[in-house]
Amino acid sequence: MNITGRYIAKTIAKPLLSAIAIGLLVLLADRLVRLLDITLGKKNSLGIVFEMLAYLVPHYLGLALPAALFLGLLFGFNSLSKNSELDAFMATGIGLHQLVRPVMIVAAFFTMLALLIVGWVQPQARYAFRAIVHSVQNVEIFFLAEAGVFMQAGSRTFILDKLSRKNNQFERIFLFEDKETGGSLTLTSTGGALVEHEGDPRPILRLREGHRLRIDGVVRADFSNTPLPPHVVGEFNNVDTPIGRVVGTQFRVRGIDHRELSLLELIKLRGKPPEKTTVEKMRGEFHKRVVTVLSIMILPILAVPFAIGRRRGHRAYRFALAVVLLVVYHEVLEQGALAVFLGKASPWIAIWLPFVALATFAIWHFHHTCFTLKPARLEPTLDWLIDQIERVKVSVLRRFKAA
Predict the structure, then answer these.
(1) Measured distance CA(371)–CA(363) in Å, rounded
(2) pLDDT for the residue numbered 376
(3) Cα–Cα nearest to 250, from 135, 140, 137
(4) Calpha distance 347→50 (Å, rounded)
């Protein structure tokens, strides 16, 4: 980059980085509430939440990068236009198409970054996120307990008194385990503590000075003369018993879902899809990712014409049109991919056709802005309409003030 290119890159860098940071914070904050519902009360819950948020960053970054680049270009070139810096560049013989060259370099860098994120990082992070959610949801932990409240952990029901979470100590506990046809087990204790056991993800209750009642059978409550099943009554000084349950020994292997496969794996397994996906979903996912990455290269030539305008004209509607156009394009791709997933459309029509249409419009609009002097046909009409709205607004405010 020459000095002009570095200046253009510096101008768009601040709004671009701000848009990325704000976008990620907003998206992650929305998910944070739901993650707290899953992990609240678990051991090291704050650490688990941040780990889960870290696995979500690639997913949201794939959405934030194109939007941030688009907004950075809009605000950056709009600033150059308002400050007459574009006029100064053009007066020295530097055209708008030349000013976009450094932006295309930035867009190429973002394209390679998006290819890495969408093609490889996102599938791995998605699988890791699902694995940690599985481990959190399927290991019921004692830390959800509240003093004086009956709690359920698997087949065990317990209630305890005077719980201290600082040192995991408690006093007076009643624990009942229902073994269905195998009988039941009842424990009472004057107190104990929660300890960890290496190799077992479940917390261990270490009870002291208690009583134990084991019944090897079902007790009938019909007041018949049926003899009581065999039972054992005893006392203990110390006993360890696990609380909770673990479903399965290990989370499933990666790749059961098409969204957990990298781009190379989507190509390699396109004829032999995994168990819970189809050939249509594999094909649609591949084409959607490729088009999403390539769309980043269109954003500079799409955004720049919307960012600049006549000095005495209104520019706010340009920003609105640009953002609406990008949102509509994203939704069209999503719906097109869904149609491909269901086998109702070809990816070349449902996914690639909108991409070609957007690229054609962007190139035409950019060429019209750079190499022609004719104003856009809709600009005078839109400016007049906005002026009329402003006049009506001022008139209404004056009448309210007079009243």
Answers:
(1) 12
(2) 58
(3) 135
(4) 37
Token pair for 124: 């791995």
Q: What is the pLDDT of residue 51?
A: 86
244: left (phi over 0), alpha (psi -120 to 50) or beta: left
The full set of domain ranges for the chain reads 3-137+253-372, 142-242, 373-403
Query: How many angstroms from the chain centroid is the CA of residue 136?
Result: 18
What gap in Å lies between CA 394 and CA 403, rounded to an integer? 14
Contact, 151 vs 157, CB < 8 A? yes
Residue 309's Cβ-side half-sphere holds a number of Cα atoms within 13 Å equal to 21
Residue 296 CB partners (closer than 8 Å, separation 6+): 65, 66, 69, 107, 110, 111, 114
Residue 235: count other Cβ atoms within 10 Å of its Cβ: 8
More confidently predicted of 197 and 280: 280
In the chain, the largest separation of any two C-alpha atoms, in whole Å, equals: 109
Strand order in the sheet with 151-153: 151-153, 156-164, 169-178, 184-197, 200-215, 231-242
Contact 176, 191 (CB under 8 A): no
* pLDDT tens track for 92-126: 888 888 888 889 999 999 999 999 999 999 999 99
- Comparing 70-74, 201-205, 393-397, which segment has the lowest mean pLDDT? 201-205
| 251-303 residue pLDDT tens | 778 888 888 999 999 999 888 888 888 999 999 999 999 999 999 999 999 99
Whether the pTM exceeds 0.90: the reply is: no
Coil/strand/helix, residue 236: strand
Dist. CA 26–CA 233, nearest whole Å: 58
H/E stretch holding 271 reads none
Handedness of CA 317, 323, 327, 332 (dihedral sign): positive
